[in-house]
Specification:
By secondary structure, the chain is an alpha/beta fold. The protein contains 13 helices and 11 strands. Strands 1, 2, 3, 4, 5, 6, 7, 8, 9, 10 and 11 form an 11-stranded mixed sheet that branches. The protein starts with 5 loop residues before the first strand and ends with a helix. The protein binds pseudouridine-5'-monophosphate and manganese (II) ion.
């Protein structure tokens, strides 16, 4: 049963009822990832991209204690005002949802919380920028994103540009393997590192929709839960890793000096990168988000057309 505090937009409800494709979108990227007005404009761009592909968008966000799955026009305007006024948004992972609802606060949903709410509504496909993972220095901090746990528990297809090199990539890939979460590289056999299209880490490649749909059916039949589709940033926007490396190291050093940890760490590192690359990282971020949404639309349509 869906609690009253979860509000599914009529457009999303109807699309699901009529077996039309729906793609979920997260909101931490809006509340914590990008500044105003870029955040609201990327929200509109991504929603419009889906609509132009005849796919219903379902941006997921918590506003005043109500978890919205899809925003109607009036709520979009409310969100715009809130972002413009820089109102206080919490960063909500899946464990934070019950308290956010109880306290009637507002917050952006991370990958884990978005997966959970999407699944409750019956949405199978979710596009994001990058997932959280195992942070560097995990040996002492044990900082491992609950996104990985969510992927192991919730049967939703997550399309991302891999994850950021701010993380410990080999450790993140190990945990994904331990939790038996499949990673499928879309037309690539190397794990993409968000701003950078290629890496030295091999993954399984798929390059057509028939294989994808067949894979998903098999995965569910074999009691699998979440999967990660790794979709590299388009080559023309890809930033070379050696250029980012020193900035990333500096950002992690600064976080340590300032004592920034826990849920504040990822937003801090991303903000540092944006400033240090003079906005180049933001441009790349927007490009890969659009690219992921585009692929998510194709996958969502393929699941419907090929009867899954
Ligand atoms: N990684 C990014 N951009 C992001 C995030 C992660 O490159 O915006 C956000 C996502 O919402 C992700 C969350 O689910 O941060 C993970 O945070 P944490 O590491 O605190 O679990
Ligand atoms: Mn964390």
């Amino acid at each position: 049963m869906i609690p009253k505090s979860i509000n599914i937009a009529p457009s999303v409800r109807n699309a699901l009822k009529d077996k039309k494709p729906v793609v979920a979108l997260e909101s931490t990227v809006l509340t914590h990832g990008l500044p105003y007005p870029e955040n609201f404009s990327i929200f509109q761009t991504l929603e419009n991209l889906l609509i132009s592909q005849k796919v219903t968008p379902a941006t997921i966000i918590v506003l005043d204690g109500i978890a919205y799955i899809g925003l109607e026009e009036n709520m979009q305007m409310k969100l715009k005002q809130m972002l413009k006024n820089k109102e206080n948004f919490s960063k909500l992972g899946m464990r934070d949802l019950p308290l956010a609802i109880a306290k009637e606060i507002s917050g952006g949903t991370t990958v884990s919380a978005t997966m959970l709410l999407a699944h409750l509504a019956g949405i199978k496909v979710f596009a994001t920028g990058g997932i959280g993972g195992v942070h560097r220095n995990w040996e002492s901090s044990l900082d491992i994103s609950s996104d990985l746990i969510a992927l192991s528990r919730i049967p939703v297809i997550v399309i991302s540009a891999g994850c950021k090199a701010i993380l410990d990539i080999p450790a993140t890939l190990e945990v994904l393997e331990t939790l038996a979460i499949p990673i499928l590289g879309w037309k690539t056999n190397s794990f993409p590192l968000f701003y950078t299209s290629k890496s030295v880490y091999p993954i399984e490649k798929i390059d057509n929709l028939d294989i994808f749909v067949s894979f998903w059916k098999n995965h569910l039949a074999l009691k699998g839960k979440g999967i990660l589709i790794a979709n590299p940033i388009p080559e023309e926007y890809s930033l070379p890793l050696d250029k980012l490396d020193s900035i990333i190291n500096e950002s992690i050093e600064q976080a340590q000096i300032k004592g920034i940890k826990g849920k504040e760490l990822t937003p801090f590192l991303l903000d540092f990168l944006a400033q240090a690359t003079k906005g180049e990282s933001i441009k790349a971020n927007l490009a890969l988000l659009k690219n992921n949404v585009q692929l998510a639309a194709e996958l969502a349509k393929a699941l419907i057309n090929k009867g899954s």
